[in-house]
Amino acid sequence: MSDHDLPLSRRDLARRFEAVRRHTLTLAEPLSAEDQAAQSMPDASPAKWHQAHTSWFFEALLLRPHLPDYRPLDESFHFLFNSYYEGLGPRHPRPQRGLLTRPSLDEVRAYRRHVDTHIQQLIARCSDAVWEDIAPTLELGLHHEQQHQELLLTDALHLLSCHPWRPALIDAPPAPIAGGTSDWLPHDGGLVEIGRDVRAGGGPETGFAFDNEGPRHRVWLEPFEIASRLVTCGDFQRFIDDGGYREPRWWLSDGWATVQQQGWKAPLYWVDSSDGNNDGDAAGAGSRWSVFGLHGLRPMDPAAPVMQLSFYEAAAYAEWAGARLPSEPEWEAASALPGMAQLDDQAWQWTRSAYHPYPGFRPLDGAASEYNGKFMVGQLVLRGGSLATPPGHTRRTYRNFFPPAARWQFTGLRLARDARPRTETHA
Q: How many CB atoms lie within 10 A of CB 324?
């Protein structure tokens, strides 16, 4: 059966599969083979591992159970590239992924081609009944790979930040940040609906959603106000200059303990020219700070959203600013307000909400049941998206999550506050 003979839904997924898989290789292309094998910390993974694991996902959840007579390229890969799926067997320890010098990068790319070929065969040859069964898992696999595309960039950025050269991952200059002032946008609160009816396709949006985005349910909100734009580097510099990292009263107890233990003085990739660690003239005349990012070490742009913040730093800044972080129901309810900007194209935004299941949450069936639910403890929700999030991957109901001390992602903040009393006028 040729591609033109496939039903539209199959043809669409087959083409999207090819495009997503190709984009992963494009993102990794600027990295050398040595870059792609290294692991800079236990929470990050080598670029080579990301490329192999996303192939493993399609092989383990689709090819092995559904393609008759499928033969893996190498049986040992099932152990090497499993991430956390206990139901699918043992795995190589996460902190030791950088020790996987073998298979080589060329062999990982051959593994990807092997999986790609057989996924396309499965799409073309399976019966309609099997297609109905596997299409949701194939869709899940595409969004899973898009998540790893962002992780590939953030993990590679952390790796390159550890190198004395601080090399750029992207040679082209960064796109300019659209300026603008941040306004307080009012929301009347009340009974609102958030989330997605992920099993019935209901809610304000259609299309894919992860299981943790539902069920759609009602939440009561008190009136509040939310900032139209993200907190900027210039805003955050004023917090630093005011002794923000030296004053415990702004910090949660665990956050202050982390600041003391880790010696934090600024966001993760900020470089202080006054301490003698700055490279050359990167900070620019009269500027104290440079920021390392995908485009290398560059002068800090005061108008750019501040990034690489932990939840602790975001909460401390909000306290210093006389505001707070929004809850995730507030963020979602406010996302439709006229004037809301930088929702999903700059930095993920910390909320004050713990990552818990929604009322009535049910995980996916089978091996995919381990995808989200078992991580619903000890983490905070982030909303929106970032400049590293693949286009088309975000939704207003998307729930990202990380532990409160994590700060190697493109994570920033948007302020919120309780509604101010309105002044009444009388005729």
A: 16
- Residue in this structure with the two tokens 């959203």, named with its chain if needed: 305
- Compute the distance between CA of residue 90 and CA of residue 87 in angstroms, rounded to an integer: 9
Tokens of 258: 């982390």
What span, in angstroms and rounded, lies between the C-alpha atoms of 384 and 379?
16
> Which has the higher per-residue pLDDT, 103 or 5?
103
**CA separation, residue 137 to residues 66, 97, 371 (Å):** 11, 26, 12
List CB contacts of 324: < 8 A, sequence separation 6 or more. 315, 318, 352, 415, 416, 417
Amino acid at 408: W
pTM for the full predicted model: 0.94
| Per-residue three-class SS string for 413-427 | CCCEEECCCCCCCCC
Beta partners for residue 225, in sequence order = 186, 417
Q: Which residue has the tokens 């439709």?
A: 336
The token pair that represents 102 in the structure block: 């073998």
- SS3 label, residue 322: coil
Please give the pLDDT value at position 421. Answer: 75
206-221 pLDDT, tens digit each: 689 999 999 999 999 9
What is the rounded end-to-end Cα distance, in angstroms, of the chain? 77
